Amino acid sequence: MDIKIHESWKPHLVEEFNKPYFKDLINFVKCEYKNKKCFPPGNEIFNAFNHCHFNDVKVVIIGQDPYHGEGQANGLCFSVNDTVPHPPSLINIFKEIESDLGIKYPKNGNLLRWAKQGVLLLNATLTVRAHEAGSHQKKGWEEFTNAVIKVLSNNKNGIVFLLWGGFAKKKMKIIDNNKHYILTSGHPSPLSANRGYWFGNKHFSETNAILGEQVKRDVIDW
């Protein structure tokens, strides 16, 4: 499995690629993809980086695991391929955008349109075995994606980090909040949203207010 990651990221991550844990991780992933059905497709594992280049990152959204159902995962957290029914968390994300910004609920759940505007849609674990949630956790992906967050925190300024749910909030400790903006809320999953921890967080309008007024960058067309 070649590491097909956009050139803009390579100078910042080359040290990680050369560490023993990462080599072990790649060997594990190669073996899994050879012997089991895994998602996303091999050429889409690093899609978050390939569609949102290092210099373009304005917003980071952190997910946990790729979708493990057939044809869903496309390498961008919370996103699904064109024509795929929207999973519950994505439905609640779109509902919040609709109430926050008055944007009509979209037919397409592919968030590639966000990535191309500078939203890094980063799952903590980049691969998963089909129909086995969490099956590739604790194999090295979390160490790698933590390194990505640290690289962004250390080398850039004014990124808006959207940390949804307990898992994502743990990343606060590796983000410099003197240089960046951190917005937290409950997770958009039904369990959290139905308890009142998601709806009404207004993260999408708040992100655009920060980008437009504080950071002086183009806002996101959600």
Automatic annotation (TrEMBL):
Principal cellular location given in the protein's record: cytoplasm
Keywords for the protein's UniProt record, in alphabetical order: Cytoplasm, DNA damage, DNA repair, Hydrolase
Presence of the UniProt keyword Hydrolase in the record: yes
Catalytic activity: Hydrolyzes single-stranded DNA or mismatched double-stranded DNA and polynucleotides, releasing free uracil
Residues at the active site: 65
Domain Uracil-DNA glycosylase-like span(s) in chain numbering: 50-211
Classification via InterPro entries: UDG_fam1, Ura-DNA_Glyclase_AS, Uracil-DNA_glycosylase-like, Uracil-DNA_glycosylase-like_sf
Similarity field: Belongs to the uracil-DNA glycosylase (UDG) superfamily. UNG family.
Name of the featured protein: Uracil-DNA glycosylase
Organism: Algibacter aquimarinus
